[in-house]
């Protein structure tokens, strides 16, 4: 049985259905009138971007499963077809709601003096502006191709928006061309000169529509029409088994194979003429299970995430600047501070510069002999990598574990790996068959205790501005020695580590989490204090789901703050009535994983990189570490408690998909992200 599918049960929600519930929560946030207008547009963009990736990965996987033949896989293929159909129905329902939300937001923008104009409503001044813009910036980026000259159109990139162009003229047959909109180069939204005191914005699509006669001069065409469309391809990579190739070469070839993946979802302008649509569909070579959906004039609304602000900061959330800890201002040695006591940062409430400064200090310190680090996703102009290169050039022994199979970041990681290799860094490509998803840094000192950092998120400057994550820094030998064994396992996976304190997949994490839950059950039976509080991204592993159900049947209170996939049905009498779960959608993406177990009132707290999914517990190198410092433990518990108290941006996750607002724990409004922002700022001021 594939990890994608599980045996149907009324008490287990398929991960893909639960993902649709999660993405719907984002759409619901976009429709809230108390959310600033431009941030509502951003949520629409996030919803659209998420849906594209869902089709590229999850729906593509279901499509492949559904097409399997043979008696031994007949049941799985049938189940995949049924789930595919259910998800298609849900997508259609939510898409209708999305269009309604978009119409509402256009009206709201107009009321705020921001008008979306098209090629038919331009003033003379704006027409001149568009012509000049096209000649100088847009036109040079356009490369129209005659549709008749294309063999298989799906070889093109599916991350872009396209125009299918119909060209007609006296005495000529109708011709068709396609072009890719250069949104990455020119921006999807073009700010025009104001008109009647209104800010005017134009889709790049309409800039091109207006300028079509300038693209086909002297060819006898007098009538030009353009219809937008987008398509989504299967994002799986085909990796060859050529033993003469190294991992870098195999993944590079796999990325190229993805570019040639089959199209499986097409969205097109419903006004597109039938002949043009038929020709286009033939070029895309669709199968019977593929989704073909007529829609409006504009697609690829992930671009709303970069909608121009036009000086209207009053239509955005107030900027929250990250807290800068005092030691960064005074220039104290971070290595010495961490050697004396555990420290942490909680981004984006704290500045990620802490981690960068730590690496920069290690790169030049005469007391540091080595640096080891895992990198899963890396920022475009990574200061992390620059610090590692600096360390290597300063004679430190630097080893970096790069995960080449970080989905959609493979090309970037390949490039960074080559750059680091050229700088003298020992680059390791992980463990065959296991993605290295753990977030670890190990600094070897010439004297005294070594230093380790364990995080819940990537060492990524960009993510750290919008993802909530913890980074724990410690010199405790108990933790550092275990983390050393993780790096040793990555280098020599045939030798299993003997871990005393940390939880590591696929070695002991499932076993240790099972023991911690069973301890809470045993404590409850004995009349002791018991309870489980979890802040996590996803829970879909059926073994962990059943364990939590068993804990609930025994009466153990279970409270869960879950962001995304959640396969449980809560509130069932005698089954899950002590389980309460909610998911927060707010200005930051909730990403930290924190696990708290009551232990008769002594509370054991863990944080790390793993969700409770089969892939995290069994098929990846993941690390979860115990939080041993009392102050940091209290902060982690407070973060989880705040998430569970939220009643303004949290919605109930109960398996129904209704996404009702969570009641929280009081009648007073409580917004967890605002609370944490205020708390950390007060600490600095005091």
Describe the structure.
With about 675 residues, the chain is of the alpha/beta class. It folds into 4 domains: about 1-110, Polyphosphate kinase N-terminal domain (Methane Monooxygenase Hydroxylase, Chain G, domain 1, Up-down Bundle), CATH 1.20.58; about 115-320, 2-Layer Sandwich (polyphosphate kinase like); about 325-490, Endonuclease, Chain A; about 505-685, Endonuclease Chain A (Endonuclease, Chain A).
How would you summarize what this structure contains?
The protein is α/β, with parallel strands linked by helices and 686 residues long. The model is unreliable at 237-245 and 248-259 (pLDDT under 50).
Which short descriptors sum up this protein?
Endonuclease, Chain A; globular; 686 residues; alpha/beta; nine-stranded mixed beta sheet; 4 domains; Methane Monooxygenase Hydroxylase, Chain G, domain 1; eight-stranded mixed beta sheet; polyphosphate kinase like
């Amino acid at each position: 049985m594939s990890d994608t599918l599980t045996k149907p049960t009324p008490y287990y929600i398929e991960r893909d259905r639960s993902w649709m519930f999660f993405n719907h929560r984002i759409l619901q946030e976009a429709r809230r009138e108390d959310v600033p207008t431009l941030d509502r547009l951003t949520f629409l963009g996030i919803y659209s971007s998420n849906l594209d990736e869902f089709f590229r990965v999850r729906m593509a996987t279901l499509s492949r499963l559904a097409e399997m033949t043979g008696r031994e896989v007949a049941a799985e293929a049938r189940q995949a077809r049924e789930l595919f159909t259910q998800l298609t129905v849900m997508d259609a329902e939510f898409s209708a709601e999305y269009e309604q939300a978009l119409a509402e937001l256009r009206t709201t923008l107009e009321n705020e003096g921001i008008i979306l104009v098209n090629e038919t409503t331009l003033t003379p001044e704006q027409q001149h502006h568009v012509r000049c813009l096209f000649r100088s910036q847009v036109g040079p980026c356009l490369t129209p191709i005659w549709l008749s000259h294309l063999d298989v159109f799906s070889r093109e990139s599916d991350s872009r928006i396209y125009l299918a162009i119909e060209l007609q003229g006296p005495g000529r047959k109708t011709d068709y061309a396609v072009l890719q909109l250069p949104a990455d180069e020119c921006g999807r939204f073009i700010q025009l000169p104001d008109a009647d005191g209104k800010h005017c914005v134009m889709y790049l699509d309409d800039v091109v529509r207006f300028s079509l006669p300038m693209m086909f001069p002297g060819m006898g065409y007098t009538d030009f029409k353009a219809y937008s469309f987008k398509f989504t391809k299967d994002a799986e990579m085909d990796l060859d088994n050529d033993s003469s190739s190294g991992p870098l070469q195999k993944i590079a070839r796999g990325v190229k194979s993805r570019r040639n993946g089959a199209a499986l979802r097409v969205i097109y302008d419903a006004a597109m003429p039938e002949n043009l649509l038929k020709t286009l569909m033939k070029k895309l070579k669709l199968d019977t299970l593929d989704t073909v959906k007529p829609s409006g004039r504009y697609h690829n609304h992930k671009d709303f995430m970069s909608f121009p602000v036009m000086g209207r900061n009053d239509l955005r959330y107030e900027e929250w600047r990250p807290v800068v800890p005092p030691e960064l201002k005074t220039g104290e040695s971070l290595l010495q501070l961490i050697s004396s006591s555990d420290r942490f940062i909680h981004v984006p409430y704290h500045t990620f510069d802490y981690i960068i400064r730590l690496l920069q200090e290690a790169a030049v310190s005469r007391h540091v002999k080595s640096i080891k680090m895992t990198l899963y996703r890396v920022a475009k102009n990574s200061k992390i990598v620059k610090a590692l290169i600096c360390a290597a050039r300063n004679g430190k022994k630097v080893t970096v574990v790069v995960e080449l199979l970080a989905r959609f970041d493979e090309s970037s990681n390949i490039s960074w790996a080559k750059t680091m290799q050229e700088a003298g860094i020992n680059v390791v490509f992980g463990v065959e068959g296991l993605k290295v998803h753990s977030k670890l840094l190990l600094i070897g000192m010439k004297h005294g205790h070594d230093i380790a950092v364990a995080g819940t998120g990537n060492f990524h400057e960009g993510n750290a501005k919008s993802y909530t994550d913890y980074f724990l820094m410690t010199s405790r030998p108990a933790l550092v020695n275990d983390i050393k064994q993780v790096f040793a396992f990555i280098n020599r996976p045939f030798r299993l580590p003997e871990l005393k304190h940390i939880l590591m997949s696929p070695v002991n994490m499932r076993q240790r989490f099972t023991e911690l839950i069973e301890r809470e059950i045993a404590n409850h039976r004995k009349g002791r204090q018991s309870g489980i509080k979890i802040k996590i991204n996803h829970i879909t592993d059926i073994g962990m789901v059943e364990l939590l159900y068993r804990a609930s049947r025994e009466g153990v209170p279970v409270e869960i703050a879950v962001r995304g996939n959640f396969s449980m049905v809560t509130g069932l009498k005698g089954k899950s009535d002590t389980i309460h779960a909610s998911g927060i959608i707010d200005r930051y993406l909730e990403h930290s994983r924190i696990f708290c177990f009551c232990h008769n009132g002594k509370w054991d707290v863990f944080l790390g990189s793993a969700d409770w999914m089969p892939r995290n517990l069994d098929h990846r190198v993941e690390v979860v570490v115990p939080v041993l410092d009392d102050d940091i433990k209290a902060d982690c518990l407070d973060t989880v408690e705040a998430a569970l108290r939220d009643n303004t941006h949290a919605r109930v996750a109960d398996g129904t998909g209704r996404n009702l607002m969570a009641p929280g724990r009081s009648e007073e409004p409580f917004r967890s992200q605002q609370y944490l922002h205020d708390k950390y700022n007060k600490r600095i001021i005091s």
